[in-house]
Specification:
Helix content: 10-25%
Shape: globular
Number of domains: 3
Radius of gyration: 26 Å
Distance between the termini: 42 Å
Strand content: 15-25%
Number of helices: 11
CATH architecture of the largest domain: Orthogonal Bundle
CATH superfamily of the largest domain: Transferase(Phosphotransferase) domain 1
Largest sheet: 6 strands, antiparallel
Number of strands: 21
Strand order of the largest sheet: 4-5-6-7-9-8
């Protein structure tokens, strides 16, 4: 007998496809055991299966006492028996918790089922992928997309400061939930997807040891060549994402993977204004800067790159929104629903390829963020190699991970103040002020003081600060505008809404809020991440 893995309908051995949902049938003896509703997994009770993919299944669950909803990712029996993949599965959870940023999905529990399968518990998200949002709109205007980019940049910079590179950035791995205060709020998914899956992993990922892995449409030149990569590979991939969001088209496309890899490594990226004449040409330079073939020529951080885009947009007269409207609800619900739980479901002319390097990570804690959403997931997206088209929504529960590994890029700490959270309006109830009636206008002339000494002194037009730092050659910027070098003194115009940014060669940029008074500001910059060193040793997460 054969069974549909989705609906569990059984068929005779001579049938290969399910009549209900078109899924391929699998032999009964290879079918994964299903966690029935009511099953207790850790502290959570299973309510139903959300999806199943190449690496396992995802279930909706709820805490029976406090009612907290969650998603539970369960590795298949095949992968649970592979110590390398189990190690990377655990590394995914560790990486996310090391970063601890509210724009990255939260994983908060891990365990082993009685039958030996590993699982972890993560937040449940309600919304859609950035890919699905792009499908709705065709292309996204700069005013709408920049607030989303800013939040993603903060998440990536926090990851890089913790010594972790994403390495598979694409719109399908960015999830949008809706926040009442800030509008669309992005969550970064899929940290540390598998590197060395080998031949034992089946047909879902056709990769081999030593191959360059990632998603070719978004891969950096160094990834395409199979070279060691650092955080700058994310800057290149993010540049492709930005180009696609603003123009509705990818900068590099090809009929097969080999041609695409050649273009990624050697062909210059087209200016966005040449692809989409409605876009201001001023936006071309900052995006092309991200798409430099040489990693050393790219921006130093993702935040720096996005700030350059925002500055160019403002210079072109574009008013950047602070709240991005909610996507159309009708388009979230229309069409049939297909469940996908990992990137192995992507199908297209260019296959998905994944890589992660494993190396020791020095202990560094970036600015903590808070993950606070427990919602249900709904997303859309077909293969990375297909043209953007169609509007069929997909339901995705949480992170799609197979073999996961943490990437150490050295000890860096991008210490952001509480600005990692969106600029939300205060939600506390505030009593409305009493409005006194305005007295009638008098015909008598206004009395002007004879001496200006009676009026209070006006505050100085600029703040003056001195920089206290051990790092040589620190330059101070107001946004992208240079103010001078440390130690100063540095004059800052009052009333500006920009952040201070401290930069030095070989160090990660440090953004800081502008002080309210004159004085000395202590600045501690962290070195840029080192290149990764691959270790063949596989950590056993269950070793005492």
């Amino acid at each position: 007998m054969a069974t549909c893995p989705t609906c569990r309908t059984q068929y005779p051995d001579d049938v290969s496809t399910c009549a209900n949902d078109g899924e391929g049938l699998v032999p009964d003896d290879t079918l994964e055991p299903l966690l029935a509703p009511g099953t207790i997994v850790g502290e959570y009770r299973i309510e139903g299966k959300l999806g199943e993919g190449g690496f396992g299944a995802v279930y909706r669950a709820v805490h029976p006492v406090i009612g907290k909803a969650a998603a539970i990712k369960v590795l298949s029996r095949e992968f649970s028996a592979n110590p390398q993949i189990v190690s990377r599965f655990v590394a995914e959870a560790r990486a996310v918790n090391q970063i601890r940023h509210r724009n990255i999905i939260d994983i908060f529990s891990f365990g082993v089922l009685d039958d030996g399968r590993q699982y972890y518990v993560m937040e449940l998200l309600e919304g859609l992928t950035l890919d699905a949002y792009l499908r709705q709109r065709g292309r996204i205007p700069p005013a709408d997309v920049i607030p989303i980019l800013v939040k993603i940049a903060r998440a990536l910079d926090a990851a890089h400061a913790a010594g972790i590179a994403h390495r598979d950035l694409k719109p399908e791995n960015i999830f949008l939930v809706y926040d009442e205060d800030t509008g669309l709020f992005p969550k970064l998914l899929d940290f540390g997807i598998a590197k060395l899956l080998g031949d034992s992993t089946g047909a879902h990922h056709k990769t081999r040891t030593g191959m360059a892995m990632g998603t070719p449409l978004y891969m950096s030149p160094e990834q395409c060549r199979g070279k060691n990569v650092d955080h700058r590979t994310d800057i290149y991939s993010f540049g492709i994402v930005v180009h696609e969001l603003l123009t509705g088209r990818l900068p590099f496309e090809a009929e097969d993977t080999i041609d695409l890899l050649v273009k990624q490594t050697s062909a210059p990226a087209p200016p966005m204004s040449a692809v989409c004449p409605n876009l201001p040409a001023a936006l071309d330079a900052p995006v092309l800067h991200m798409l430099e073939k040489d990693p050393a020529r790219r921006p130093r951080t993702v935040g720096e790159a996005v700030e350059a885009i925002a500055a160019a947009a403002r210079g072109a007269g574009i008013e950047v929104k602070t709240i991005v409207p909610r996507p159309e609800a009708a388009k979230l619900a229309e069409g049939s629903v297909r469940i996908v739980t990992d990137s192995s479901a992507d199908q297209g002319k260019t296959e998905a390829i994944a890589v992660t390097h494993v190396m020791p990570v020095e202990s560094t804690k970036p600015s903590p963020g808070q993950t606070e959403l427990a919602l249900q997931t709904s997303t859309a997206g077909e293969g990375a190699g297909k043209a953007r088209g169609g509007s069929q929504p997909l339901l995705v529960a949480g992170l799609a991970v197979a073999a996961l590994a943490a990437v150490a890029l050295g000890v860096v700490a991008l210490r952001r103040p509480s600005g990692d959270a969106p600029n939300a309006a205060p939600s506390a109830n505030v009593a409305a002020p009493t409005i006194e009636p305005k007295p009638p206008a008098s015909s008598a002339p206004a009395v002007v003081p004879a001496s200006s000494s009676l009026a209070p002194d006006a505050p100085p037009a600029a703040l003056k600060i001195t920089i206290d730092t051990r790092v040589p050659g620190v330059e101070v910027f107001l946004g992208t505008k240079p103010l001078g070098a440390a130690p100063g003194p540095i004059e800052i115009p009052r009333g500006t809404t920009e952040r201070l940014v401290f930069k030095a060669k070989g160090y990660i940029d440090l953004p800081r809020e502008i002080p309210t008074e004159d004085g000395t500001l202590a600045v501690e910059l962290k070195p840029l991440p080192r290149g990764p060193v691959y270790s063949k040793e596989v950590e056993n997460p269950f070793k005492p």
